[in-house]
Design a protein that fits this description.
576 residues, single chain, elongated, alpha+beta, 8-stranded antiparallel β-sheet
């Protein structure tokens, strides 16, 4: 435990429980770190001191021994981090630095100390191997640091957007790269760049980018439904109908024009049902409309850009406008007689193995007008996208038509009880995992890639969640100050999970507002201090809608990660 300063400027001194002596850390703080009640660590010679019953006497004894080679080890800190370091190089560099900087009267003493240091290296072989490995690692990364002496990695980033993500990246002190062809470590790109450039570029070992190569397998509406259907059939074949029924989180859906005849057969089964048409590759409610008669589609085909795909069309340069048609959920859960959907965020760091983080904060988007099925032509009634609601005559940008999921959970709990809400949270967890597992074997996994998905779901009157769509580029443009704060926290915590600065151990279950809910299998909540547990099913470590005390948690997390890294980096060698 290192010494720290109190509010009054006095030095706090840890007390050893084995004796009643106070260790005056102000005297030893330059080289001594107290690791626990019975041990201390010497920074100069990298050895652990066993306090035992001697207490401060053991420290003074070690200090007398340490003074004989302190000057030599101090010179070791002057070697640049990027230089390759070995035992022989350290000895040679120390002698060279000493000969150029130390007084002439000290030259002979330093040379003698270098010989003595070689003996110390020989007697402490295991400790020096770890030290050399640490220095070699620092040297390997050192060429990518702005200031080798500070130990902070200078991350270079590119950003294709000018909204909240750019503010977050700049707030971390990273270097913004804007020149074409310049090297970067982190790139927040658009999906167009992935399609055109990703396959033709080379990325360094530590570079990260915000999309997987074929992310569209989950985010294009037609491919998403195709993969869901295939995975449901696979589950039914391998695990039975009960397990396959857990994939029933989307209504009957068909791709047009390829599945038009199948759609017509399903349409005839529900003569009075309402259906909804959506472009497969558009967002923000563009091109969506509701209908009840097949004649409405016939008229639409004549007056739209809809075209059946032909064999000579070039799908990469001139994509065909494909649509999906779904049975409209006409019994939505209403709050204040208004329809809403829920947007929450899922971070996938890897598909092989599947590693999924769920963010605690989310929001519900409400319609500005009361729900009714009398006028299916009015998209403001049926679509809750902000881009659509802004078209309403009584839209108030300050009210923003949003409600935090924590507020929604309190409302649902007061109305339906804890058990019903816990069942809903468990169903949402299953929806997330099954949707990702449906594309796990299809997505091209790459260690440089990660993905922040925006999931949109809605609830029906029975509080069953239905998946509407998954967004690969969820909107990061804030519609209000509250929305900006939420997205800023979200993106900042996302970068903490990605850990470009290499601050964490990689074994964390929670980082800021993100909770690890799946890591090649369900991640269970810790024993004790449980804030929320899901209903039977996937008892995942998810806390959607729970308190996000991220500042306190991150402070504690980084402190514990630093201690764990020091312990695992070979700083607990021989005991003297």
């Amino acid at each position: 435990m290192a010494a720290d300063r109190g509010r009054g400027g006095r030095t706090k001194t840890p007390r050893c429980t084995f004796h009643d002596e106070w260790l005056q850390m102000s005297e030893y703080s330059s080289w001594l770190v107290k690791t626990d009640e019975t041990h201390a660590f010497c920074r100069f010679c990298r050895t652990t001191i066993s306090l035992g019953t001697m207490g401060i006497g053991a420290i003074k004894s070690h200090q007398n021994r340490n003074a004989k080679h302190r000057s030599l080890l101090n010179l070791q800190n002057q070697i640049p981090v990027a230089d390759p370091v070995s035992k022989d190089n350290i000895a040679d560099a120390n002698v060279q630095v000493a000969a150029s900087q130390a007084p002439a009267v000290m030259s002979k003493k330093i040379i003698d100390d270098s010989t003595r240091k070689a003996e110390i290296f020989k007697s402490e072989e295991n400790m020096n191997k770890k030290v050399s490995a640490n220095y070699s690692q620092l040297g390997k990364v050192g060429s990518r640091r702005g200031n080798a002496g500070s130990g902070e990695r200078n991350v270079r980033f590119r950003c294709g957007f000018t909204n909240t993500i750019l503010d977050v990246l700049k707030s971390r002190g990273w270097t913004h790269v804007t020149e074409e062809g310049a090297e970067w470590d982190f790139y927040w790109c658009d999906v167009g760049w992935m399609r055109e450039v990703f396959d033709h570029c080379y990325m360094d070992e530590n570079a990260r980018i915000c999309h997987f190569r074929n992310h569209y397998e989950l985010t294009r509406k037609n491919l998403m439904v195709k993969n869901f259907k295939r995975y449901r059939k696979q589950l039914e074949r391998e695990s039975g109908k009960v397990e396959a029924a857990k994939c029933d989180f989307f209504p009957p859906t068909f791709e047009l024009p390829t599945e038009y005849h199948m759609f017509v057969e399903e349409f005839k089964k529900y003569p009075n049902a309402t259906w909804i048409m959506k472009p497969a590759a558009k967002s923000q409610g563009k091109g969506i409309f509701l209908f009840r008669k097949l004649k409405d589609i016939t008229d639409w085909k004549k007056n739209s850009v809809y075209k059946p795909q032909t064999s000579d069309s070039n799908s990469e340069k001139d994509p065909v406008e494909t649509y999906v048609v779904s049975k409209y959920i006409d019994n939505p859960y209403l709050v204040g007689n208004k329809k809403f959907d829920i947007r929450f965020y899922v971070l996938v760091c890897s598909y092989a193995p599947l590693k999924v983080w769920l963010y605690r904060e989310a929001f519900a988007r409400f319609s500005t007008v009361r729900y009714n099925m009398e006028s299916i032509e009015d998209n403001v009634v049926h679509l809750t996208n902000v881009a659509i609601q802004k078209l309403a005559p009584d839209y108030d940008p300050e009210r923003d038509c949003k409600w935090s999921v924590s507020s929604l959970k309190r409302y649902l709990t007061a109305k339906h009880g804890h058990e019903k809400v816990d069942e809903l949270m468990g169903a949402i967890d299953e929806l997330i995992i099954y949707s990702l597992k449906s594309v796990q074997k299809i997505i091209i996994n790459d260690k440089h890639c990660f993905e922040l998905y925006g999931y949109d779901i809605m609830l029906d009157v029975d509080m069953k969640p239905w998946l509407l769509e998954v967004n690969a580029s969820p909107s990061l443009t804030a519609s209000s100050p509250v929305d900006y704060d939420l997205k800023f926290r979200l993106l900042d915590d996302m970068l903490n999970v990605i850990d470009m600065e290499n601050k964490l151990t990689g074994k964390e279950k929670r980082i800021g507002g993100f909770d690890l809910m799946w890591n090649d299998g369900p991640v269970f909540v810790n024993d004790g201090g449980v804030e929320h547990t899901t209903a039977p099913g996937y008892r995942t470590n998810s806390f959607l809608g729970c308190k996000n005390d991220r500042n306190r948690q991150l402070k504690y997390l980084f402190k514990q990660a630093a201690i764990a890294k020091r312990a695992s980096s070979g700083t607990q060698p021989t005991v003297c």
